[in-house]
Amino acid sequence: MLLKPHSRIQVLEGARDNLPDTEALEAARAILELAKSLTADDLLLVLISGGGSALLPAPIPPVTLEDKATITRLLALKGATIQELNTIRKALSLSKGGGLAQMAHPAQVLSLILSDVIGDPLDIIASGPTVASSHSTQDCFQILAKYDVLDTLPKSVLTVLSSSVTKHSTQKDYSHVCNVVIGSNRLALEGAKCQAEQLGYLTILLSDAVGGDVSTVAHFYSLLIQH
């Protein structure tokens, strides 16, 4: 991104290949420090999309960036869903699960969200930095047990999950936050349907909740077309 000389805009890049890295960690720290400095007279505008979990890593000590990468990799290899991965990420992060919004209080927070998750669960998209988490520590342990990774976790992860540090963000005040979904699977499908009909095509919206392996889903749709 090219900026004009003396621009007040600051660009912080990181999370190459959608993996949290040291650059993303430094960017997250800068963003959280900015949020902490805001007052009731300020407005924090937050733009959220898929990939936000990797772009805003802020592990709760003693969890390190490497520890979070390890647990994410372990669960992904076992077939964990994005909902399950982000449930764990929220519990191990200072910024996710509403953390960013809480640090910005008492400033007003307006979050514009592009959803990449089926059903648009706001606390799962980018792990919900401006949304109260709907999950508990017990939910995390159930996920870890489900994929049989409890014995291979970094010790720091168990320390955080077992401590009182991980409190339910649902107990906190979010009256200063407004979350708005400005793009989603449903909105994209409806837009494509409208455009196709204007071009004279007969359209049917089969579902906005299809998930799974791409090749399997593609094969299913090809069978529908043949009939």
Which secondary structure elements does this structure contain, and how are they paired or packed?
Layout: H1 22-36, E1 43-48, H2 52-55, H3 65-77, H4 82-91, H5 99-104, E2 108-114, H6 137-146, H7 155-162, E3 177-183, H8 185-198, H9 214-226
Parallel strand pairs: 1-2, 2-3
Report on this structure.
Keywords: ATP-binding, Kinase, Nucleotide-binding, Transferase. The protein has nine helices and three strands; from the N terminus they run αβααααβααβαα. Helix 4 (82-91) crosses helix 6 (137-146). The protein is globular, with a radius of gyration of 20 Å. It has a three-stranded parallel beta sheet with strand order 1-2-3. The model has no long low-confidence stretch (mean pLDDT 92). Helices cover 41% and strands 9% of the residues. By secondary structure, it is mainly alpha-helical.
Give the key terms:
about 230 residues, mainly alpha, nucleotide-binding
Strand content: 5-15%
The overall average pLDDT, rounded, is 92
Structural class, by secondary structure, is mainly alpha
- Low-pLDDT parts are none
How are the strands of the largest sheet arranged? Answer: 1-2-3
| Helix and strand element order | HEHHHHEHHEHH
Helix fraction? 40-55%
EC number: 2.7.1.31
Keywords: ATP-binding, Kinase, Nucleotide-binding, Transferase
Family: Belongs to the glycerate kinase type-2 family.
GO molecular function: ATP binding; glycerate kinase activity
